[in-house]
Amino acid sequence: MTITFNSRVRPASSVLVRELEGEAVLLNLDTESYYGLDEIGARMWSAVNASDSVEAACQMLVAEYQVDAERLREDLQALIEEWIEHGLARIDEG
């Protein structure tokens, strides 16, 4: 699946998310697998799911962190692809 920066990413319907002390745990109920996100990963998850597009999430994160915008785009795209691969997130076409 191709992820564009105009895409809207949402949690998969079978995923439970719990935040604890700045980190997050994601549980895929279909596979009974869980994934931990450190503070930055949890912030990326939150930004992506709260934004209308991956681009909007990138802009939000670049404003928060002192990081090269292109590097952030590459890292965020790789992370989203990993979430989708593990059934944690989906592209919202609507």
Give a short synopsis of this structure.
Helices cover 43% and strands 24% of the residues. It is of the alpha+beta class and 94 residues long. A 3-stranded antiparallel sheet has the order 2-3-4. Strands 1-5 form a two-stranded antiparallel ribbon.
Annotate the secondary structure layout:
Blueprint: E1 9-11, E2 15-20, E3 23-28, E4 33-37, H1 39-50, H2 54-64, H3 69-85, E5 89-91
Antiparallel strand pairs: 1-5, 2-3, 3-4
Helix pairs in contact: 1-2, 2-3
Explain this structure.
By secondary structure, the protein is α+β, with helices and mostly antiparallel strands. The protein has one domain: Arc Repressor Mutant, subunit A (Orthogonal Bundle). Helices cover 43% and strands 24% of the residues. The protein contains three helices and five strands; from the N terminus they run E-E-E-E-H-H-H-E. The strands form two sheets. The protein has a three-stranded antiparallel β-sheet with strand order 2-3-4. A two-stranded antiparallel sheet has the order 1-5. The protein is globular, with a radius of gyration of 13 Å.
